[in-house]
Design brief:
Elements (H helix, E strand, L loop, with lengths): L2 H14 L5 H8 L3 H14 L19 H12 L8 H12 L5 H10 L27 E8 L9 E8 L5 E7 L4 H14 L5 E4 L14 H5 L8 H9 L2 E4 L7 H20 L5 H19 L20 H4 L2 E6 L5 E4 L2 E5 L16 E6 L5 E5 L2 E8 L40 H8 L3
Helix pairs in contact: 1-2, 1-3, 2-3, 5-6
Length: 437
């Protein structure tokens, strides 16, 4: 009997003994008069057990069976579902095992077995969150996360991702062996083909996004010179995308929290799908992105999208998301690139190829698949390699008398004679050498 039930028994007993009235008993117990009358009737019929609740000690009708609880605990500790948080584990149970339970039920089962949580919950720090952009496409955050996404089944790799600030949707993602410029070119192309061109991109200050010589001197600033751009920065300029560089990770916290969530979930998802290579990971990536967006994306304040499709008059994406190099055009309308000689291929453009003056600095654009184009006055001209003529090596001629013969001294040469011969020394010299000192 609990303290509450004991208090009810004593107060109702005093009413039965006539020490207090029924209204006073109801007031002391903070109950209605009708409820006190029911308690009095049950005490008169059953005694002390009348105040005890009838469901006490009984298992609730909606409670899980012991077998189901044990099954959930075994799956939670198995190698298949290790390192799952409570919410994700409840989703996986419904998806793969057909067990519909709430995350709170999973948490109670885990706590009853004295299993610690995957991550300790810390009180959130008080800060003023930055307000989301009203329209999708106004700001896209990009970053990379180098992690053991496939655990011990493969080497660590980098996940490059782009998230829309207004909706929290992943607009593009790709796995790469490392964080490189080509990976961000592929990421941008994927975003443009799926959604369109955003207004601005938010990134960190990695050397992929900025030039090492972006700090201008006072004289350069007074002369009106602009900061040099990296390969990726030049591509964003041609696309008309504003590039914003964050000075701290906290400034782009939305994508930092995204990687924290993906490291918590996608490692398990890739394990359940049996992925053990970067090629297979990229193959299942669209499915993972779709599931994530359904679970975590939000509706923007303004339903109109700020993503702009690629215009017809704009160059092909292959010629924008590419590597750019500067070369000097030779007198024969040729240029040198990577120790090879190239010329403009005939029929590369339907229009007539304009004459380019010799010694002109021209831009060579190299696509991701290795093709080379000469970029001149907003048009691209394909380049073809000119094989160098094979020159026959001239036979080597030996000069007369260049070969020296070895000189062998005669037998009576002074060099062949020893410096001292005891047999030829005089008698007095031999005696002086043998005499004791």
């Amino acid at each position: 009997m609990s303290k509450k039930e004991l208090m009810r028994y004593k107060v109702v007993s005093r009413w039965i003994d006539g020490l207090i009235t029924g209204s006073e008993a109801a007031e002391l117990l903070n109950l209605s008069y009708r409820q006190v009358c029911r308690l009095k009737k049950r005490i008169l019929e059953e005694g002390e057990s009348g105040v005890i609740h009838k469901n006490k000690g009984r298992k609730p009708a909606h409670a899980l069976d012991d077998e189901v609880r044990q099954r959930i605990l075994e799956l939670h500790q198995s190698e298949r579902y290790k390192n799952c948080n409570d919410v994700h584990f409840a989703e996986l149970l419904a998806k793969y095992e057909g067990i519909e339970v709430s995350p709170s039920t999973v948490r109670r089962i885990r706590l009853a077995a004295r299993i610690k949580a995957k991550r300790k919950r810390r009180p959130s720090k008080a800060h003023r969150p930055r307000k989301r952009k009203p329209q999708a496409g106004m700001l896209v955050q990009m970053d990379g996360s180098f992690h053991r996404w496939l655990e011990d089944r493969a080497e660590p790799m980098c996940l490059l991702a782009a998230i829309d600030d207004a909706t929290g949707r992943i607009v593009a993602a790709v796995f790469r062996p490392q964080e490189d410029t080509e990976g961000y070119f592929l990421l941008t192309r994927q975003m443009i083909e799926r959604e369109g061109i955003p207004m601005s991109i938010y990134s960190d200050r990695h050397m992929i996004f900025r030039s090492p010589h972006d700090k201008l001197t006072i004289e350069q600033e007074l002369a009106g010179e602009s900061k040099p751009l990296s390969q990726f920065g030049q591509a964003l300029r041609d696309l008309g995308i504003e590039h914003i560089q964050a000075h701290t990770p906290q400034a782009k916290g939305r994508i930092e929290r995204l990687f924290e969530t993906l490291q918590d979930r996608w490692i398990v998802e890739l394990r359940l799908r049996g992925v053990d290579s970067i090629e297979e990971a990229n193959r299942v990536l669209p499915e993972l992105i779709e599931e994530h967006n359904k679970a975590f994306a939000v509706e923007p304040t303004d339903p109109h999208s700020a993503f702009v499709p690629l215009e017809q008059n704009q160059p092909d994406l292959d010629l924008i998301l590419c590597y750019r190099h500067w070369r000097t055009l030779g007198t024969g309308q040729t240029l040198s690139f990577d120790h090879k000689t190239y010329a403009i291929a005939e029929g590369s453009q339907k229009s007539v190829i304009p004459p380019i003056p010799p010694k002109t600095r021209v831009e060579v654009r190299q696509t991701l698949d290795g093709r080379l184009f000469l970029w001149y006055k907003g048009k691209a001209y394909a380049l073809k390699e000119i094989p160098k003529p094979k020159r026959q090596a001239a036979p080597s001629k030996q000069k007369a008398g260049s070969k020296r013969k070895p000189h062998k001294p005669d037998e009576n040469h002074p060099w062949r004679k020893p410096l001292f011969n005891p047999k030829e020394a005089p008698e007095t010299a031999r005696c002086s050498q043998t005499a004791p000192s």
